[in-house]
From TrEMBL:
Name of the protein this chain belongs to: Nickel transport system permease protein NikB
Membrane topology type: Multi-pass membrane protein
GO molecular function list: dipeptide transmembrane transporter activity
GO cellular component, one term: plasma membrane
UniProt cross-references to InterPro entries, sorted A to Z: BPD_transp_1_N (IPR045621), MetI-like (IPR000515), MetI-like_sf (IPR035906)
Organism superkingdom: Bacteria
Taxonomic classification: Bacteria, Pseudomonadati, Campylobacterota, Epsilonproteobacteria, Campylobacterales
Main location: membrane
Location in or out of the cell: Cell membrane
Length: 311
């Protein structure tokens, strides 16, 4: 297990290196002009002299390879430079906004597990019942509904019409309820369908028939056998759900004016703020890799066969 974890951590560095090259080249070759965006945002007329001066000030007057080596050398020391627009330290800003996004994503993940697991289990146990039809409709709607549209509808219903929840900002726990629901709805729907399908598939396996012949009660069979085996693919997709939840924050945080890293990144993207975008991609890549490593380790503890292969 230790050898497996060490190997995965060592893979982290070359992977982040490849990501850094890709995002650095993509930003500079995608046809956008960070200098023009900087001048417009600063209220400066983009004359030839102003453009040349801005390029020198932002370090964009050097060859691309030189720019990359300067940036990567600083990034290795966890110095991602300063924002083109605000002139503030990018790493400090990221660490300031990141906790709010992680808190929102954690609450959304909590909703995903607490809602989807019971609904998926009950739907599988009472297959073709009214409850099963209801959960299948919810699952279908969840997969088809864009989270930004759902966020807007939640604001209209619970803030404008009913005046129950605050529509924007951050502060109390109530500010996170609608954004978390909007982000997690699709993950809830996917998880319900996955749990239901796996439990229905596993309930007809030979070891389940053997358990029934031993006289075990139905709830024991479902919880101790069927659900435990069906949990394995759920753990596998947990990393995907976490990625969806954090990625969904990019749009949802802007809709709800939630001051997290997603809103900060979208503002940087719209203004071609290269240092912020580069830091954001590297940070998100690091988080996703670490989360998937944790999921792999958790999977090994659930399934001894996987643990044996990691030794």
């Amino acid at each position: 297990m230790i050898k497996f974890i060490t190997k995965r951590i060592l893979y982290l560095f070359p992977l982040l290196f490849v990501v850094s090259i890709f995002i650095f080249a993509l930003l500079r070759l995608n046809g956008t002009d960070a200098v023009l965006s900087y001048l417009v945002a600063s209220g400066i007329t983009p004359t030839d002299d102003a453009i040349a001066s801005a390029k020198a000030a932002l370090g964009l007057d050097k060859p691309i390879l030189t720019q990359y080596f300067i940036w990567i050398k600083q990034a290795i020391m966890l110095d991602f430079g300063s924002s083109f627009l605000t002139k503030r330290d990018v790493a400090a800003d990221m660490l300031y906004y990141l906790p709010s996004t992680l808190k929102l994503a954690a609450f959304a993940l909590f909703l995903t597990l607490v809602i989807s697991i019971p609904l998926g289990i009950i739907s599988a146990i009472y297959k073709d019942s009214y409850f099963d039809y209801f959960t299948r409709i919810i699952s279908y709607l969840g997969v088809c509904t864009p989270n930004f549209w759902l966020g807007l509808m939640l604001i209209v219903i619970f803030s404008v019409k009913l005046d129950l929840l605050p529509p924007f900002g951050i502060g109390s726990f109530s500010h996170m309820i609608m954004p978390a629901i909007a982000i997690s709805f699709m993950s809830i729907a996917i998880n319900i369908r996955l749990i239901r399908a796996n439990m229905l598939e596993n309930k007809n396996k030979r070891y389940i028939i053997y358990a029934k012949s031993r006289g075990l009660k139905n709830y024991q069979i479902y919880i101790n056998y069927i659900f435990k085996i069906s949990l394995l693919p759920i753990v596998t997709t947990l990393g995907m759900h976490i990625g969806e939840l954090i990625g969904g924050a990019l749009i949802i945080e802007n809709i709800f004016a939630y001051p997290g890293i997603g809103r900060y990144a979208v503002n940087a993207i719209s203004n071609n703020d290269y240092p912020v975008i580069q830091c954001f991609i590297i940070m998100m890549s690091f988080i996703f890799i670490i989360l998937n490593l944790i999921i792999d380790i958790l999977y090994a503890f659930i399934d001894p066969r996987v643990k044996k292969g990691m030794v």
